[in-house]
Write a structure and sequence with these properties.
The protein is an alpha/beta fold. It folds into 6 domains: 7-112 and 246-306, 3-Layer(bba) Sandwich (FAD/NAD(P)-binding domain); 115-242, FAD/NAD(P)-binding domain (3-Layer(bba) Sandwich), CATH 3.50.50; 319-400, FAD/NAD-linked reductase, C-terminal dimerisation domain (Enolase-like, domain 1); 421-476, Arc Repressor Mutant, subunit A (Orthogonal Bundle), CATH 1.10.10.1100; 493-549, no CATH class; 631-786, Sulfite Reductase Hemoprotein, domain 1 (2-Layer Sandwich). The chain is 34% helix and 21% strand. It is built from 28 helices and 38 strands. It has a 5-stranded parallel β-sheet with strand order 5-2-1-9-21. A hairpin with a 4-residue loop joins strand 28 (421-423) and strand 29. The longest helix is centred in the C-terminal third of the chain and has 18 residues, at 724-741. Residues 560-622 form the Nitrite/Sulfite reductase ferredoxin-like domain. Keywords: 2Fe-2S, 4Fe-4S, FAD, Flavoprotein, Heme, Iron, Iron-sulfur, Metal-binding, Nitrate assimilation, Oxidoreductase.
């Protein structure tokens, strides 16, 4: 049998639009030999995540969508740092800037767009950059290390993301905008003004209604001169005034172009067998600059090229979501009020939320949300479907209606089409999610994320993914989502805690016996969990069961693979004294410590201490335990703050020491880390800590749920406070709420996603009585704690059994 001839497909552009289309083609057909040309030296990456790279919360590797191996595994030839300069439609071949030629049967042009650089004097000076690719990011990162003042020209989505990133890098940033309202193409005046106030709180300055006439300076830019004659100092200028479709190749090749490359409803250009998708493309007179439309175009094109029946592409409902930490803004469809509109609006200055829905003849045609964007996915779908407003929709969107159990109604996913994109960042459709649930038996959002990539970027689609999961699994959803705390029981965390309280159970053995454990002795997973829950419920009366703890906690030190241990003394806020350093050095020499390691939490780790030497090392150090082995507060990382730093606005070292002294030694569901920064430069890395604190001129901002470990997560902005007293109170309430609702071994990053940021804020910020009660309960628990090293030194019997009796067996778990 003769093997069918494979068609030669050339993809011009290695960005999100082109490669997303290729991904869809690979799912539908194996009939193409694919060659990709990309002008950048990188594999396919998520361009909309560049703002996270700029602010330092992600690396370039973190935003790669398809790594080098993906191309190899799919037999795709990739030419990086190579630009196609001409398409010969007669001989069906392309030519590149390095002289290469490549034949084709079909072409997909996905050359994207270029940043628009204002044609003003000085725009070619050193220090003037766009914000479009990794190279731009790198230039901005390098500039932030050398210079202090930056200006971002353009108060749109991209400009604000660039500005916040530069503020996080410690620069003095001013956004220069020609109009009187920021993001005026996506937001109405109310939402725009609320957004500007919020961003000013975060350290961004604004020069509104300013037209830049010239960039001044010699070789490098030193400032901006405005049309009114005033000058703004700036050593870095970021142009973020818009984009223009990259149509140079199409124009030079003789293709029909207007503002973009002109295509029909199946993405066909004026050249036979040549197609175009993404920002370089003009469809029905519109060029789209956002990511969701390019995915929708790619789905239609992939099906058309593979001979699969598909509806034509008829345009997209454009939706915008701002990706700035601590700011939630959403806009879709029409947002400017006109006489024919019926307006539904609610503005809450105290909670800083704003909702507006626009109707035309009772049909939902647009929406703007600020502060609370939980209904964004639902509204986007309703606008796209041209749904009529109903009482149920009104109650759901405006937050006035509840189900019988008091919870808000969820939007239905039944009416979503299979091709509807759920995850706009990664182009994942409803059908893709449904298929992996049914074909692979997935039962959790995390499993879907790992399999498809949905929710892995901004996370805004998580509620819809969860609704699809519930819709597909039906009655099995709760069963599939519910897991016992271990294989010994079908009871989950909440059920175990409730049974302990209701039945007055007081020991681990009693819990396992009364609640019908299948294994009467329990296991290494449930015994430590029950021990923690009992201690959390009865802090004053419960006697800790050491035998139910992991070996590191029983030994008060981390065991190493060679059988030796590490000793990490407490250094409050990462600060120590010369005297303590000398003591550490003397003790390390005396007991033959192999290595002293500076930890990521600003501590010194004495590695290689023999088990029998541990009590003597603790005694001679005469320092508190740093709890590096425990499910408790490990470290409070600080910057030097206002005591020494020229940028510092708050005394981060003093606050870090205060918090560490107050909350040390308290048992928590998992290890816990703080960071306290004296200014928004974020040198202590608040974005990856369980509680991160950032100082500013007006007080402090609190972030929660960050994690820099095996499951990285950027912390969520929780609230802003003005006084140190309020900061300490809220931190205590957060920790106690986590203690009382967290699963054992569940990090706050997982806890925040499971419980929901809004619920945590409601329990602590909106309910002051509940906050006081949480603080009272954590104070009671703190009164029971004591230093474990000193306690062990005074307990001769236990000390002898654990450290001096070599015949005793310590099982390692």
């Amino acid at each position: 049998m003769q093997t069918p001839t494979r068609e030669k497909l050339v993809v011009i552009g290695n960005g999100m639009a082109g490669i997303s289309t290729v991904e869809q083609i690979l799912k539908l057909s194996d009939s193409f030999d694919i060659t990709v040309f990309g002008s950048e030296p990188h594999p396919n990456y998520n361009r909309i995540m560049l703002s996270y790279v700029l602010e330092g919360s992600k690396t370039v590797d973190d935003i790669v969508l398809n790594d080098w191996n993906w191309y190899k595994d799919n037999r795709i030839t990739l030419h990086t740092t190579t630009t196609v300069t001409y398409i010969d439609a007669v001989n069906k071949q392309v030519t590149t800037d390095n002289g290469m030629t490549e034949g084709y049967d079909k072409i997909i042009i996905a050359t994207g767009s270029n940043p628009f650089i204002l044609p003003i004097p000085g725009s070619d000076k050193e220090g003037v950059v766009g914000f479009r690719d990794i190279s731009d990011c790198n230039q901005m990162l390098e500039a932030s290390q050398k210079y202090n003042k930056a200006a971002v020209i353009g108060g749109g989505l991209l400009g604000l993301e660039a500005a916040k990133g530069l503020v996080n890098l410690g620069m003095d940033v001013t956004v220069v905008h020609l109009m009187d309202d920021i993001m005026e193409r996506q937001l109405d005046q109310s939402a725009s003004s609320m957004l500007q106030v919020e961003l000013e709180r975060q350290g961004i300055k604004f020069a509104m209604g300013k037209q830049t006439s010239e960039l001044i300076g010699r070789n490098r830019v030193s400032g901006l001169r405005f049309s009114d004659g005033s000058i703004l100092d700036a050593e870095l200028v970021v142009m973020a005034v818009g984009i223009k479709p990259n149509i140079g190749l199409a124009k030079d090749s003789g293709m029909e172009v207007e503002r973009g490359i002109v295509v029909d409803d199946y993405m066909r250009t004026s050249f036979e067998d040549v197609y175009s998708v993404g920002e370089c493309t003009q469809h029905r007179g519109v060029c789209y600059g956002l990511v969701a439309p390019l995915f929708e175009q790619g789905h239609v094109l992939a099906k058309h090229m593979c001979g699969v029946d598909t509806l034509p592409y008829e345009g997209s409902i454009v939706a915008t979501k701002l990706k700035i930490s601590g700011v939630d803004v959403f806009s879709a469809g029409e947002f400017v009020e006109r006489p024919e509109h019926t307006i539904i609006a609610a503005r809450d200055e105290w909670k800083r939320t704003y909702k507006k829905v626009l109707l035309r003849d009772n049909v939902i045609v647009g929406a703007v949300l600020f502060g609370d964007v939980t209904e964004s996915s639902n509204l986007q779908k309703l606008i796209k479907q041209q749904s009529e407003m109903t009482d149920d929709i009104y109650n759901s969107v405006m937050g006035t209606g509840c189900c019988g159990d008091g919870t808000k109604k969820q939007s239905s996913v039944e009416t979503m089409s299979d091709d509807e994109i759920v995850c706009g960042c990664n182009g994942i459709t409803k059908k893709t999610i449904v298929d992996v649930i049914t074909d692979q038996g997935l039962t959790t959002v995390d499993e879907i994320k790992a399999c498809t990539g949905a929710t892995r970027s901004c996370g805004g689609c998580k509620p819809v993914v969860e609704q699809i999961l519930q819709y597909v699994l039906g009655d099995g959803f709760k069963v599939a989502s519910k897991q016992g705390i271990c294989g010994c029981t079908s009871l989950d965390r909440d059920e175990v805690v409730a049974e302990i309280k209701t039945k007055g159970l007081t020991t681990t053995r009693e819990v396992m016996n009364v609640l019908g454990w299948s294994n009467a002795e329990g296991c290494s997973k449930c015994r430590p969990a029950i021990n923690y829950y009992l201690g959390m419920i009865y802090p004053e009366s419960y006697e800790d069961e050491k035998e139910s703890r992991f070996v590191n906690e029983r030994m008060n030190a981390n065991i190493q693979k060679d059988g030796t241990y590490t000793v990490v003394p407490r250094m409050y806020g990462g600060v120590t004294t010369p005297e303590d350093l000398k003591t550490i050095a003397d003790v390390s020499l005396k007991y033959d410590v192999k290595v002293i390691k500076v930890t990521g939490g600003q501590r010194l780790d004495l590695i290689g201490v023999k088990k029998e030497d541990l009590p003597k090392v603790w005694e001679e150090l005469d320092m508190p335990s740093g709890y590096a082995y425990a499910k408790s507060l490990r470290t409070v990382k600080t910057c030097v703050g206002s005591q020494f730093c020229r940028f510092g606005t708050q005394d981060s070292m003093a606050m870090g020491e205060l918090l560490e002294r107050k909350f040390e030694r308290l048992d928590l569901p998992a290890k816990f880390k703080y960071a306290v920064n004296g200014c928004p430069r974020n040198c202590a890395e608040a974005c990856t800590k369980d509680i991160g604190i950032v100082g500013n001129d007006g007080g402090w901002e609190i972030f929660i749920g960050g994690n820099g470990g095996i499951k990285p997560r950027i912390a969520d902005s929780f609230c802003k406070v003005k006084t140190d007293e309020e900061l300490i109170e809220i931190c205590g309430a957060i920790m106690q709420y986590y203690r009382e609702t967290g699963k054992y071994l569940e990090r706050t990053s997982e806890w925040v996603e499971r419980i929901g940021l809004e619920q945590i804020q409601s329990a602590i910020l909106d309910n002051l009585d509940n906050r006081k009660e949480l603080v009272n309960r954590i104070e009671i628990a703190l009164q029971q704690v004591e230093d474990p090293w000193k306690k062990m030194l005074l307990d001769e019997k236990t000390r002898t059994a654990l450290y001096e009796d070599h015949k005793s067996a310590i099982p390692v778990k």
